[in-house]
Amino acid sequence: MATASGSGLTRRRGAGGASADNGDEEGSRVSSPAPRRNDDPRNPETGYESGANGHKIAFDPRDISESAERSKQPKLTLMEEILLMGLKDKQGYLSFWNDNISYALRGCIVIELAFRGRISMQKDSSRRRFPLADRLIEVVDETLTGEVLLDEALKMMKSSEKMSVSSWIDLMSGETWNLMKIGYQLKQVRERLAKGLVDKGILRTEKRNFLLFDMATHPVADGGAKDEIRRRVRNVLTNRTVVLAPSPFLPEEMEFRYLRTIAMLCAAYAANVLENALVTLGHEARERAFAQVDELLAEYSQWPFGRRTGGNAAIGANLDQVIRDEVNQAKDKELQLEVVAACLSVFTRLDSLL
């Protein structure tokens, strides 16, 4: 992505490649880039706008569209929210006994790509003969997201044969006996997510000594993000009427605000980190919250999504309607939401897979 700094413009994406003139031994002269065809969608025509000082400023139209997309995306990905929920605030590391989180994080990568419109179920009516998790997914938009892990997974999916949701989660987790597909494993996901959160100013990096070795840890530097996640979790799991206030972590313009939150809750439940957001609740309230998220996982791990039966007095009584409204407003994206449901169906049997 092109950026600007106080000292001037950096090299912009899409610029013609410059090379030293072969006739100049010192290489002091630079050849002009070859002319580009303006009708090539991969090389859109450079746009110009007038600056405050009257000079024209060049920009790449793709940067404008990407900025518009980013404004509708949350500050944190689903994977980052799950990792942040599991991290110990001061110590800066996850529980050593948590075996589920690595698998759940790979599932969140698939969900995030679906929410961002990059992948969907293969449009084939015969797919309904198979369980959700066994239906094939395909890349429908190969535009990079700017998130390293998402883009790495997207490129793999684009260059590979079509595979099912459960197969992709297995392969990215390294859960395969097929040596030909071991290269699909996404490595060091937790560490890379933590470093991304450091770049976003939410975590910081420290080095701690664990008896025989030193290990990089990532304590919380800005508690605002984690506090917002905890509030959102408690909001959905304890209130009769759920209202999600807009924030940088959940922009008002973003599609599927409520459904994304449900997916985050279910992923946190599968990753065994949900309890960290419920520590301020009493024992009975925590038990009710776990029962609630268990119901949510059952309802949203099927497609079409199940209908809530708790009545007007139940926790989150309005969720069924607000999520149905979100789905009805995006009828052209039902194949993407089917991927979300398929991932949640994998989470329902996570314990038996590990």
Automatic annotation (TrEMBL):
Keywords, ordered alphabetically: Golgi apparatus, Lipid-binding, Membrane
Membrane topology: Peripheral membrane protein
Superkingdom of source: Eukaryota
Region (Disordered): 1-72
Keyword Membrane belongs to the record: yes
Locations listed in the record: Golgi apparatus, Golgi stack membrane
GO molecular function (one): phosphatidylinositol-4-phosphate binding
Family membership: Belongs to the GOLPH3/VPS74 family.
Biological process annotations from GO: Golgi organization; Golgi to plasma membrane protein transport; Golgi vesicle budding; protein localization to Golgi apparatus; retrograde vesicle-mediated transport, Golgi to endoplasmic reticulum
Positions with biased composition (Basic and acidic residues): 57-72
Taxonomic classification: Eukaryota, Fungi, Dikarya, Ascomycota, Pezizomycotina
Gene3D superfamilies given in the database record: yeast vps74-n-term truncation variant domain like
Annotated PANTHER family: GOLGI PHOSPHOPROTEIN 3 HOMOLOG SAURON, TRANS-GOLGI PROTEIN GMX33
Transmembrane listed as a keyword: no
Function: Phosphatidylinositol-4-phosphate-binding protein that links Golgi membranes to the cytoskeleton and may participate in the tensile force required for vesicle budding from the Golgi. Thereby, may play a role in Golgi membrane trafficking and could indirectly give its flattened shape to the Golgi apparatus. May also bind to the coatomer to regulate Golgi membrane trafficking. May play a role in anterograde transport from the Golgi to the plasma membrane and regulate secretion.
Protein name per the record: Vacuolar protein sorting-associated protein 74
GO cellular component: cytosol; Golgi cisterna membrane; Golgi membrane; trans-Golgi network
Pfam families attached to this UniProt entry: GPP34 (PF05719)
